[in-house]
Amino acid sequence: MSGTDRLSPAARRLCDAMAAAFPGPGDPAALRAAAAASPGGGAEVASVRDADGDGVPVRIYDPAPGAAGRPLAVFLHGGGWVMCGLDTHDALCRALAVASGAVVVSADYRLAPEHPWPAAPDDALTVLLWARARAAALGCDPARLVVAGDSSGGNLAAVTALRAPELVAGQLLFYPALDASMEQPSVAEFGEGHFHTAAHMAWYWDQYGGDPDHPHVSPLRAPDLSGLPRTLLVLADCDVLRDEGLAYGRRLGGAGVDCGVHLVPGVFHGFLGLPLPAAAAAIAAAGAWVAATPAK
Predict the structure, then answer these.
(1) Are strands 47-53 and 259-268 parallel, antiparallel or unpaired?
(2) Is 262 part of the annotated catalytic residue set?
(3) pLDDT for 103-160, tens place per residue?
(4) pTM of the predicted structure, to 2 decimals
(5) Other C-beta atoms lying within 10 Å of the C-beta of residue 101
(6) Is 269 a catalytic residue?
(7) Given 77, 89, 196, 269, which residue is catalytic?
């Protein structure tokens, strides 16, 4: 693969090692165990505490307790709607809080297949409303509320913005899953050999359920994207989901939404959680974008 490989050498080494240790699709318990084995660590944050967000467990990251008027970010983790949780995405949430200066509220939404659609998006909206109601107490401006997420969590963030655009000042979507049809060219181009396979993604969609044509399942199929908030899409170039992210960015721009697209070369799906310079740079840029969120 070396002659035509578009991954950087460091990313290729990580990709191959991760793929060798990761189960194929089909067994939620095996996938969850593999995801839970992810390394911990992460940046120091002044205050990290767990709470109850109207029945949904949340973790609150505050990089500067006592401050006021800051952005507030609700974060929705990836994992194919089937795996991962507060602990697997702890390091990413820490990094985002430090990079942005925002309070980050990470949501531990219900997982499929035990809790198929619409359990996860309903939990996401519940946490958004809970966090917004407590914004002032958290030292944040409720008019500077950002919804963020990676992969399937990026899907949930996009769906939450579609459901409550009047409440959201920004959506930060890291390599989001946006179209259950999986018909974009990048699905075939990067469907194997880049850790996150097309077979995995198809199985995740199947576990998640819902009508593939419904915009709260496939945001790319929403008939009207006008009125959505300021958006940043952070995409991996060598990713099954790349082209649906690019297509969403084009549609948002065409609908008059302030939309930026950060396409990161040489990396694969999930790169933000890896020790790569591209990951650190992307998180720093995303943090600066969150920090600049204007009041809605």
Answers:
(1) unpaired
(2) no
(3) 999 999 999 999 999 999 999 999 999 999 999 999 999 999 999 999 999 999 999 9
(4) 0.98
(5) 15
(6) yes
(7) 269
